[in-house]
Structures are given as C-alpha cells and as structure tokens.
Amino acid sequence: MISVDQWSSGSQIYFLTHLHANHTVGLSPRWNKGPIYCSRITTRLFHPKFPGFDLSLLRVIEIGRWYSLLLVSPSTGMETKVQVMAIDANHCPGAFMYLFRGEFGIMLYTGDFRWEVSSEIAQMGKTMLLNALKNDKIDTLSFSGSRCSTGDVLFLLNFLIHNFTVLESSMPVIFKVGGLEV
Ligand SMILES: [Zn+2]
C-alpha cells in the first residue's frame, strides 16, 4: 500500500526520506509508478540527481502537520485512510522521518537520523512527536539505520521508552537497511 525509500514494488504511494544513494536504489529518471512524497528541499534536489525526472510526480509534504490520504486496503479492497506526518530527521537538508497512522496501527519510520541530546532540531522533533502522538503509542518502529550511530538509536529508544512506554513486548522494532513497505 505504502512504500518508504523502497522503489521495487507496486505500492499506491511512495515516500522518500532523503536522496542519499542507498535510499534511492531502483529510482530513476524514468520513474512512473506513482506520486512520491518528500520535503520541499528534496524536490529541489531531484533534477540534479535525476535529470529528466517527471517533477509533476513529486508531492511536497511540510513538517509537523498531519496529511490524510485515501488508499485502497490490500486486506479488504475497501477505501482506507492513512495519515502521515513528517518530522525533521536532522540528517541532511530536507531529510524526514515519517509517522504513519492507518489500519496497520501507528508506525514511525526513522530513515537516517541524528538526534543527539544537545541538538535543537532533535528537541523540536521530539516535541513534534510528543504532540502528534498525545496519549497514543507507536505500534511499530522502523529504523533504516544505515547512517545512524548506536548513540542515535539508543537516544531515540530511551526517549520513546520514557515518554510513551512504547516498548511493550508485543511491539515489533524493525532494524533494517533499506526501505519499508506496508
Ligand atoms: Zn542518508
């Protein structure tokens, strides 16, 4: 239904965290599988990286607000609403984390990120995540982790544990290099 940094399958919509090469394997100037959501900064970097890319396929998503998308549920074949919020990953200009709500629960896909304790952007990201979740908890946490230090990962996990008690034994925490499909 949704792919993040994953370009090989037949998803309905696609999300790009940032344009580093290990997140765009399978993406090319001939891309025609569907719209790609990403930051405004990332859209500006598309042309230099993929000359000739059909820029009308790009959808700008702004940080810190919920977007609602109507998709077709792969399990029921009925229309289903998916909400998404972008959060600053503090990794490179325009890099996002994505927080999703949908029939699959609440999922945070970090992509590459840098959330040191001293980082002002990380503090803003934390506040944004707290406000977005309110009393809800994350059902699935997915790290792409290709450029994250152990310290970044531990910092995020600690933050989530202290604020949301998300790490119940049932919560899958996915450590993977590459993209996400749900
Ligand atoms: Zn990266």
UniProtKB/TrEMBL annotation:
GO terms of biological process kind: double-strand break repair via nonhomologous end joining; interstrand cross-link repair
Gene3D superfamilies reported in the protein's UniProt record: Ribonuclease Z/Hydroxyacylglutathione hydrolase-like (3.60.15.10)
SUPFAM superfamilies, alphabetized: Metallo-hydrolase/oxidoreductase (SSF56281)
Keywords noted in UniProt: Exonuclease, Hydrolase, Nuclease
Recorded superkingdom: Eukaryota
GO MF, one example: damaged DNA binding
Protein name according to UniProt: DNA repair metallo-beta-lactamase family protein
PANTHER family per UniProt: DNA CROSS-LINK REPAIR PROTEIN PSO2/SNM1-RELATED, PROTEIN ARTEMIS
Transmembrane segments: none
